[in-house]
Amino acid sequence: MISVATEYRRAGREPRAPDSVCYVCPRCHDTLALEHGELVCAACAGRYRLADAAYVDFAGPGLDFDDWWMQTPELQAQWLATKAPREEEFQLGGAQRYTLPLLRRLGLAPGATVLSAACGLAADVQYFNDQGYNAWGIDLGSRILRWSERRCRVRLSRADLFALPFAEASFDYVQCLNVIEHIGTVGDTTTVTEDYEAQRIAAIGSLLRVVKPGGYLLLSGVNRTFPIDFFHLQHSGPLRLHSPWEQFSLNCHDYQKLADATGYAEWTRPLPLRGFFSWTHLRRRPLVRPILPLANWALGCMPDAFYGSPLSFFSVVLIRRKAI
Length: 324
Ligand SMILES: [Zn+2]
Description:
By secondary structure, the protein is α/β, with parallel strands linked by helices. It has one domain (about 65-320): Vaccinia Virus protein VP39 (Rossmann fold). The chain has helices spanning about 5-15, 75-105, 125-130, 195-210, 250-260, 290-300, 305; strands at about 30-35, 40, 45-50, 55, 115, 135-140, 155-160, 170-175, 210-220, 230, 240, 265-270, 315-320. The protein has an eleven-stranded mixed β-sheet, sandwiched between helices. Strands 10-11 form a two-stranded antiparallel sheet. Helix 2 (about 75-105) packs parallel to helix 3 (about 125-130) and helix 4 (about 195-210) packs across helix 5. It starts with a helix and ends with a strand.
């Protein structure tokens, strides 16, 4: 059996592309050295543990995200057995049908550097690596329980969005899907804190810091100006009705305003939605299933104005970092 440290060293010896990615100290961005199963920062003396599944723990035990299904061992086992496979299907479907074609359209060929921030189960990170991309993932939540199954686990780390363990301008493309609306909220609710806007600007700024000049950041979430939310239900029925002025969800203009406030963004644009959804729930309903290909097709051929408008139930936005 190969020890974690050996595996990590072996990964470090792989021939590296000129623009390869490596971990830096998330606090001071200085280089790290492997010492006795820990990555150690010479500048600030930060120490980061290599976990059993070969990922690095940059966040430490003080930082955590409360997933509701971690409350009891029974709930955890149930979630991993029933929900995790569906979420993996959703994530993998999006990576295959949406992100890979998008990377090609952006001119990013295999070999380009990719980060999935808040990658959860990391099925996308593994898929991008299998396609030849230099893909990395970070997450804080309990989905890392599944990382031991990943072939790319030396490129996965437990880290905070606000303190990414990567040098400035490391990635051609970064994605952070369905996350920004959960920043600046009270626990796992749709109630926002007083400083929610400042927190969201800091998060987008932290993501754009590791994007190369001229590179791209993809964000997504439910559309604030569409009054029905199918995703944040918190056990309260099949949908959540909300005001188009609520502060939890964002529309394209909100993303643009926040991205502009970071000082990094050249432009922010809404993108078509075709291929983004795997319809993992609806596909299991015989009456709905036949119309899904039509719905998916329609989501790709609306005029540009549709995707940023109150008619669209969801937003996907692409932000370009200013070229130098
Ligand atoms: Zn440091």
